[in-house]
């Protein structure tokens, strides 16, 4: 299944550390929507990033639910962060197939550490929904959803169950992201196609 291509030219980014988006900054209301997406996830605490500039709002997963592989985290239990308001891009750890699709379809570019992606800040509501779904994919990766738990690991105290609806056409389950009626979705379900690459 293919994902939608991001329209227009990619923004300019700094390739020096810290990696930042220099043009096409996300409008502040869309950044706030993404901040709320991070903050609303079970077991997530927002705080400063361990690896980025001051003003970055990072998603830190509670250790009791951080069952993902080491490569699901930027540092500690930080699985992603929203860059400061002058930038508005999102830095996420994503599973390899999802990261590859994000880059191939023009939604972001590889960043440091290896395996992470700088996801361009959204320019409109539709793009904000796609980026929000990528935040959810990063969260699932960090929770270990679909990744075998290490031997002797205990079950998390916060369960991800099918009753947590993400959008009308996507839901988080304990083992896969599923999409239903993609062709009938108002936007054609394009945003969900990136996440379904998991």
Q: What does this 3D model show about the protein?
A:
- With 198 residues, the chain is an alpha+beta fold.
- It has four helices and eleven strands; from the N terminus they run ββαββββαββαβββα.
- The strands form three sheets. The chain has a six-stranded antiparallel sheet with strand order 3-4-5-6-8-7, with helices on one face. Strands 9-10-11 form a three-stranded antiparallel sheet. Strands 1-2 form a two-stranded antiparallel sheet.
- Strand 7 (108-111) and strand 8 form a beta hairpin.
- It has helices spanning 28-39, 96-104, 125-143, 190-195; strands at 13-14, 20-21, 44-48, 57-61, 78-82, 90-93, 108-111, 116-119, 165-167, 170-172, 177-179.
- It is globular.
- The model is unreliable at 147-198 (pLDDT under 50).
- Helix 1 (28-39) packs parallel to helix 3.
Q: Give the integer mean of the pLDDT values.
A: 77
**Got a strand count?**
11
- Please describe the biggest sheet, giving its number of strands, its sense, and whether it closes into a barrel: 6 strands, antiparallel
Order of neighbouring strands in the sheet with most strands? 3-4-5-6-8-7
Beta content comes to 15-25%
Question: Which key phrases capture this entry?
Answer:
six-stranded antiparallel sheet, single chain, 198 residues, disordered C terminus, 11 strands, three-stranded antiparallel sheet, alpha+beta
How do the strands and helices of this protein lay out in sequence?
Layout: E1 13-14, E2 20-21, H1 28-39, E3 44-48, E4 57-61, E5 78-82, E6 90-93, H2 96-104, E7 108-111, E8 116-119, H3 125-143, E9 165-167, E10 170-172, E11 177-179, H4 190-195
Antiparallel strand pairs: 1-2, 3-4, 4-5, 5-6, 6-8, 7-8, 9-10, 10-11
Helix pairs in contact: 1-3
């Amino acid at each position: 299944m293919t994902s939608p291509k991001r329209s227009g030219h990619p923004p300019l980014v700094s390739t020096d550390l810290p990696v930042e988006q220099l043009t096409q900054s996300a409008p502040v209301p869309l950044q706030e929507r993404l901040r709320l997406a991070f903050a609303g996830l079970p077991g997530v605490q927002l705080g400063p990033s361990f690896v980025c500039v001051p003003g970055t709002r990072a998603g830190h997963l509670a250790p009791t639910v951080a069952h993902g592989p080491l490569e699901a985290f930027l540092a500690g239990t930080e699985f992603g962060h929203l860059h400061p308001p002058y930038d508005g891009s999102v830095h996420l750890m994503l599973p390899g197939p999802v990261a590859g699709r994000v880059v191939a379809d023009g939604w972001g570019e590889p960043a440091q550490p290896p395996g992470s992606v700088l996801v361009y800040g959204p320019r409109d509501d539709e793009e904000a929904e796609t980026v929000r779904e990528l935040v959810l994919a990063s969260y699932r990766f960090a929770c270990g959803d679909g990744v075998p738990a290490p031997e002797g690991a205990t079950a998390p105290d916060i369960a991800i169950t099918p009753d947590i609806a993400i959008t009308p056409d996507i839901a988080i389950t304990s083992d896969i992201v599923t999409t239903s009626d993609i062709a009938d979705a108002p936007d054609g379900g394009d945003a969900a196609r990136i996440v379904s690459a998991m």
